[in-house]
């Protein structure tokens, strides 16, 4: 059952003392836990919701070097992000993949189209030429290569390379949580930090299990606040004053049936001047994003947000029928937490940097992580290790590796065994890739367990939910290893089923009942009804008014 691992970890938290307690299981907390655990630090991690249930599951699914920051002359940031992107490509070749971005520049844009192309050449050079070279495109070439693009007002365009996540952002974040667990971290989702008090050089922490309301306690020498948009509120609760704080920018994406057969990211500048993407997502297309100042990190998609995206895509793409609201399969919404100093305002809103800041309080042994991007996550992990060491925590294995896919010899052995089993011949005809590639990318060394299961029960390789590329044996493995507490954790974050399958198809899927039984055992009926009620009530995210800063 999927809660067994969590129950074990909750027991391991209670009454124990750790070097570091990390609060927040988004990308910043996940890499911090993986880096610290990998280098031998005794670390615990909690999140009051599911892992990656906030900002880290609502991104554009891109790992990119930040080409747009060239416009604001943030060359050091772009250089750093390009290096980080290249390292992600090297360390995660099955997950972080190069993809071409196809950009159209409209007449009257603030820069001449060829000048934008020259910027892409500079970007390529700053990326150490690790991707394919950019090229300039005339309006005629754009129309020939991508007939769906409306070129009536196009001045020209360009094609360049960046990277994207083959699965989804939340799955990538969980890979760091799983890596941390494998290296000794004790982590639990749906656990809230109710109170933390400094006493005798440590933090006395009171935790509450959000599922059972049971209270746990632990001591930690250092607390790392990795709560993303909620960093400021936790610091206020703990009485920690900081130089930095957050401003919030809301971004949304709409997911629809595939708009074009192209495997490129189609890139435009929306009517408000910011970058606007059509991103391939298997058989679907993810469209966005917006950039709206808000005062609260708890946000939803408004009718205005939705219409902005629809109006822009219908203006920029030539389709037989315009994309309508009823064509939307799923929506993604989150806030970008932007790190600013206490006195800094938002007069240049879109110009605000997306770089992260790490602030330590040596007197309180407390660290806050402000801002950040998925692309720069490996740097965050390393910087947290340095910050923890500076607070007096011994790092036993400072040079140890803590990220990346298993070494090539392990993959070769897996592929050999998969071939001997005839795994790829068992792939469902509707699947987008062979089972061997999918199993390896999602589970790494744990994929050997899938081969063992298929040998003993060949039927376990069958898909459980139509249009969703998850087999019975994968869900069994998920139940043991991925700490799924609610069905949404699996349907939206460990997988992306909820984001590519319509709600009515999910509800009618016969395999959903069996998947729930595998994940939750006797609690399956309750968890299934809980999830279906949320699906019925959340076909469109509740409307909310945009509160200006």
From TrEMBL:
UniProt record similarity statement: Belongs to the FAD-dependent glycerol-3-phosphate dehydrogenase family.
Keyword Flavoprotein: yes
E.C. no: 1.-.-.-
Enzyme class name: oxidoreductase
InterPro entries named among the record's database cross-references: DAO_C (IPR031656), DAO_C_sf (IPR038299), FAD-dep_OxRdtase (IPR006076), FAD/NAD-bd_sf (IPR036188), G3P_DH_FAD-dep (IPR000447)
Domain annotation Alpha-glycerophosphate oxidase C-terminal: ranges: 430-510
Superkingdom assignment: Bacteria
Keywords, comma-separated and alphabetical: FAD, Flavoprotein, Glycerol metabolism, Membrane, Oxidoreductase, Transmembrane, Transmembrane helix
Residue ranges constituting the FAD dependent oxidoreductase domain according to the UniProt record: 19-340
Cofactor(s), by name: FAD
Segments traversing the membrane: 109-126
Protein name: Glycerol-3-phosphate dehydrogenase/oxidase
GO molecular-function terms, A-Z: oxidoreductase activity
Natural source organism: Congregibacter variabilis
């Amino acid at each position: 059952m999927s809660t067994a691992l969590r129950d074990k970890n909750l027991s391991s938290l209670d009454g124990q003392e750790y070097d570091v307690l990390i609060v927040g299981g988004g990308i910043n907390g996940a890499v911090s836990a993986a880096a610290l655990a990998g280098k031998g630090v005794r670390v615990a991690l909690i999140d009051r919701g599911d892992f990656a249930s906030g900002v880290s599951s609502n991104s554009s699914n891109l790992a990119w070097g930040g080409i747009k920051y060239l416009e604001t002359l943030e060359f050091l940031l772009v250089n750093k992000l390009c290096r980080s992107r290249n390292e992600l490509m090297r360390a995660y070749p099955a997950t972080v993949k190069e993809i071409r971005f196809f950009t159209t520049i409209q007449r009257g844009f603030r820069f001449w189209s060829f000048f934008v192309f020259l910027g892409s050449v500079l970007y390529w050079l700053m990326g150490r030429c690790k991707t394919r070279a950019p090229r300039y495109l005339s309006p005629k070439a754009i129309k020939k290569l991508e007939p769906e693009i409306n070129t009536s007002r196009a001045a020209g365009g360009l094609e360049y390379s960046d990277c994207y996540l083959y699965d989804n952002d939340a799955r990538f974040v969980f890979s760091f949580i799983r890596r941390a667990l494998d290296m000794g971290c004790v982590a639990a989702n749906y656990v809230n930090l109710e109170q933390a008090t400094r006493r005798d050089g440590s933090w006395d922490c009171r935790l509450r299990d959000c599922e059972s309301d049971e209270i746990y306690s632990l001591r930690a020498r250092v607390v790392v606040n990795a709560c993303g948009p909620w960093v400021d509120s936790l610091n206020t609760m703990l009485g920690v004053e900081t130089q930095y704080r957050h401003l919030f920018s809301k971004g949304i994406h709409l997911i629809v049936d595939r708009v074009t057969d192209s495997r490129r990211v189609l890139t435009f500048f929306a009517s408000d001047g910011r970058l606007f993407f059509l991103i391939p997502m298997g058989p679907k297309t993810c469209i966005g994003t917006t950039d709206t100042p808000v005062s609260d990190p708890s946000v939803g998609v408004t009718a205005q947000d939705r219409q902005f995206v629809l109006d822009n895509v219908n203006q920029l793409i030539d389709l037989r029928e315009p994309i309508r609201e009823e064509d939307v399969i799923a929506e993604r919404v989150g806030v970008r937490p932007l790190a600013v100093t206490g006195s800094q305002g938002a007069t240049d809103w879109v110009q605000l940097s997306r770089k992260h800041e790490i602030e330590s309080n040596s007197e309180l042994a407390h660290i806050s992580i402000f801002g950040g991007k998925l692309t720069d996550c490996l740097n965050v992990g390393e910087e947290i290790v340095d910050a923890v060491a500076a607070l007096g925590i011994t790092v036993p294995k400072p040079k140890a590796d803590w990220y990346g896919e298993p070494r090539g010899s392990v993959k070769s052995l897996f592929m050999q065994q998969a071939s001997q089993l005839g795994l790829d011949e068992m792939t469902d005809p509707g699947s987008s890739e062979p089972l061997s590639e999918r199993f390896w990318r999602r589970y790494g060394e744990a994929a050997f367990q899938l081969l063992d299961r298929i040998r003993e029960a060949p039927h376990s390789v069958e898909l459980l939910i139509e249009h969703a590329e998850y087999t019975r044996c994968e869900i069994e493995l998920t139940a043991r290893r991925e700490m799924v507490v609610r069905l949404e954790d699996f349907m939206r974050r460990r997988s992306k089923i909820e984001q590519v399958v319509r709600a009515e198809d999910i509800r009618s899927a016969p395999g959903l009942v069996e998947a729930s039984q595998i994940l939750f055992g006797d609690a399956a009926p309750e968890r299934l009804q809980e999830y279906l009620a949320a699906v019925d009530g959340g076909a469109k995210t509740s409307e909310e008014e945009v509160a200006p800063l």
